[in-house]
Amino acid sequence: MFELYRVVSSSAGLDRMENVSASDVRSGAKDIQGIPWNTKTTRKEVRQRKLRIYGNRGRNIPQSGETSDKEHKTIKKDCLYDFRWYAGSVRPSFSNSRLRNMVWATSKHDVYLMSNFSAVHWSSLTCTKTEILDFSGHIVPLEKHPKSFPEGFTATRVSTLAVKDKLLLAGGLQGELIVKYLDKPGVSFCFRPTYDDDDDAITTCIEINNSASGALHFIVSYNDSGVREFDMETFQQSNYFHFNLPVNIFPWFMFCFDITKSFSAFSALSIHHSGLSPDGRLLVVVGDDLEGMLVDSRNGMAVSSLSGHVDYSYASAWHPDGQTFATGNEDGTCRIWDIRNLSKSVTVLKGTFGPIVSIRYTSDGRYMAMAEHEDFVHIFDVKSGYVVEQEIDFFGEISGVSFSPDTESLFIGVKSSAWNGLLEFGRRHNNSYLDAMI
């Protein structure tokens, strides 16, 4: 991976800890990943060297990072989530450099993630890892459904994951879709699109939602420009739309209008992410264009363009209030927008050195997590006007980030050649000082 990890491994030693607690970090012997820093090579020195070397590497638009530096918001540092635990026995993974939906918290103690070829469950209560499904072998559905692949799949390389309630869905780099109920043995459904030229499409995103009627369904996006909606009860495809553009992440929500006409303006746009407002009326769309777009979901017409980013965008998220939303970009910034005035973004938040690839709000809207491609996750206090920030600093690429539904926990998957693991943080409250005494 990065050459500085060899420096860390050789000078700090390979005496890594499988797990790291808050008390271990307070002792000063290890950092939150269990790296045993010494006087020969300090953590600060390695971090500074990496910051100097990284620069604009990997950006689509040269010097887009420097361009975005001119208008970002001034931040006050604080601690909003306290470090709890580092599970070094967990090995987070991902298969695509821009698809990082591999970590899903279903409670403050339960998190599901990809680890090599397996989907695993980690319990922070018992500190145990349980394999849920091994994708390296041959997976065959146990139930019979129309359009299902009864022969199943072999050696699926998972590109995206979604977990909600008792349901786990995985998509693959060759268009695979695998559905498993967590409270049932085996796999219930397998699916893959078919093409005349035998080409395969990458499954880029899966979203589990409730339909307007309240029924559970899931939306699957492919980079062949196709979006499919499935009914959860029957696993039957209820809607299918094809676009004249590659779809990277497109969790569609309503199939109530002519997509071809509504999105003719996007014919040259590769969509990386889109998000539906809480009231279901507006959709933010970002991708391989300097401008994003806000769309009226009732008729598919563009409400406004989103001008300000200087590179391509990869992430978006709505605040629960439905008035504001965020977009994350290769230029290293996250912009906050207000639907009441879209002439420009109301806030510009700057990362440390990498593109912003994931954004998550807590369910109560108090905090927002902004994940860079690697090494840094930023938590902002929304109530302060995004002025107060906590920067979480580690070494490794991010496989995913997820707040628990009750907002009490934050999980970060870290993939590294030597120091990978699952980071867990807990929301700080007024009585958090009591935790330090335990």
Report on this model:
The protein has 438 residues and is mainly beta. Helix content is 8%, strand content 41%. The chain is built from five helices and 31 strands. The strands form seven sheets. Strands 1, 2, 3, 26, 27, 28, 29, 30 and 31 form a nine-stranded mixed β-sheet that branches. Strands 4-5-6-7 form a four-stranded antiparallel β-sheet, with no helix packed on it. The longest helix has 12 residues, at 43-54. The protein is globular. The two termini are 37 Å apart.
Strand count: 31
How does CATH name the architecture of the domain at 4-94 and 249-437? Beta Barrel
Largest sheet: 9 strands, mixed
CATH C-level class of the domain at 4-94 and 249-437 is: Mainly Beta
Assess the beta-strand content as a share of residues: 35-45%
What is the CA-atom radius of gyration, in angstroms? Answer: 21 Å
Unreliable stretches (pLDDT < 50, length at least 5) are 10-14, 243-268, 433-438
Provide a count of the helices: 5
Helix content: under 10%
The name CATH uses for the topology of the domain at 4-94 and 249-437 is Lipocalin
Q: What's the shape? A: globular
Give the overall average pLDDT. Answer: 82
How far the N terminus sits from the C terminus, by CA atoms, comes to: 37 Å
Content-based structural category: mainly beta
